[in-house]
């Protein structure tokens, strides 16, 4: 493989890694506070893309308004899901949450499929990036699409901002306290239930944001999150369940590794991340950045 092709694969891997990072970050935020493995995260990602498409078709909104509104709508849906359904399962076996979110995923995918077919007469739809981000940029060592560079940059900013808020601010301190000892946190007059709902909404909004960013690259279709979510779960496990920085670093690293691996040896492309997950778990069961179970 020549150097230019390798660099192109690295940048393509960073684009995929941007989506892995945003999705796994949302999963890590939700799991870190609620200990819920949200199997519906891929459907929320798809809903972000679909919301951007629908806002454009029905209201004529462009990419930039949709980039803000679509994640907010998905976050609002997250509030409804957490308050209306998931909150009723707290204290039960984790399998109940898994089954519920899996069932909601199937329901959401079929519902969006029917809406796209009946309202828009398409099963898959392209979504154009803004004019200012069309074309390519010559970086000197490689020519790369402007929009994909924007995806990488925005994902990094959002991921680092989320990490900063959770790790370095009073808001993050309340979230961590609510996670580690909700009883004592309530004794200080903090409404833990309200914070739980807010955290779930933020995690859902991050998935929605990833979906909006993905729409111009992969197009909008009801099952676009189905395969991606499996890899995202692997990323979360490799980075460490509940680890914010682990999710971000591992998301980008896995994206690059998978892209380069696919170019070097294509047959291993779909299994490389799972081989890596198995190796990491053999050496460090808590993940690369996760704390051992007894230390939590």
Automatic annotation (TrEMBL):
TM stretches of this protein? 6-31, 67-86, 147-166, 187-217, 271-291
Could you identify this protein by its name?
A: Branched-chain amino acid transport system permease protein
> Carries keyword Membrane?
yes
Q: What is the lineage of its organism?
A: Bacteria, Thermotogati, Deinococcota, Deinococci, Deinococcales
Question: What is one Gene Ontology biological process annotated in the Swiss-Prot or TrEMBL record?
Answer: amino acid transport
Using the UniProt record, give the first listed, main subcellular location. Answer: membrane
Keyword Isomerase in record: no
The family note in this entry says: Belongs to the binding-protein-dependent transport system permease family. LivHM subfamily.
Task: Quote one Gene Ontology molecular function term.
Answer: transmembrane transporter activity
Entry's Pfam families? BPD_transp_2
* Keywords, comma-separated and alphabetical: Amino-acid transport, Cell membrane, Membrane, Transmembrane, Transmembrane helix, Transport
Q: Where does it localize?
A: Cell membrane
Q: Which GO terms describe its cellular component?
A: plasma membrane
Topology of this chain in the membrane:
Multi-pass membrane protein
InterPro entries referenced in this protein's UniProt entry, alphabetically: ABC_transp_permease (IPR001851), BCAA_transport_permease (IPR052157)
Q: Which domain of life is it from?
A: Bacteria
């Amino acid at each position: 493989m020549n150097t230019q092709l390798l660099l192109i694969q690295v940048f393509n891997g960073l684009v995929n890694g941007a989506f892995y990072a945003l999705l796994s970050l949302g999963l890590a935020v939700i799991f870190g506070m609620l200990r819920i493995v949200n199997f519906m995260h891929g459907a929320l990602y798809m809903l972000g893309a679909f919301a951007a498409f629908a806002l454009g078709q029905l209201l004529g909104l462009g990419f930039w308004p949709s980039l803000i509104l679509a994640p907010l709508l998905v976050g609002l849906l997250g509030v409804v899901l957490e308050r209306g359904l998931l909150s009723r399962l707290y204290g039960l076996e984790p399998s109940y949450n898994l089954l519920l979110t899996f069932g909601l995923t199937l329901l959401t995918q079929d519902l969006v499929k029917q809406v796209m077919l009946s309202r828009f007469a398409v099963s898959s739809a392209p979504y154009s990036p803004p004019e200012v981000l069309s074309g390519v940029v010559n970086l000197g060592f490689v020519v790369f699409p402007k929009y994909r560079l924007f995806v990488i940059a925005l994902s990094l900013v959002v991921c680092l901002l989320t990490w900063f808020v959770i790790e370095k601010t009073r808001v993050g301190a309340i979230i961590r306290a609510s996670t580690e000892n909700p009883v004592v946190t309530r004794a200080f007059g903090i409404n833990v239930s309200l914070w739980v709902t807010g955290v779930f909404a933020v995690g859902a909004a991050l998935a929605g944001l990833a979906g909006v960013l993905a729409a111009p690259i992969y197009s909008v279709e009801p099952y676009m999150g189905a395969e991606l979510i499996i890899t995202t779960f692997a990323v979360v496990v490799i980075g460490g369940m509940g680890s914010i920085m682990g999710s971000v670093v591992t998301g980008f690293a896995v994206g690059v590794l998978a892209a380069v691996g696919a170019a070097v040896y294509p047959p291993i492309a779909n299994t490389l991340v799972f081989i890596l997950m198995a190796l990491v778990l053999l050496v460090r069961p808590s993940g690369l950045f996760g704390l051992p179970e007894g230390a939590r």
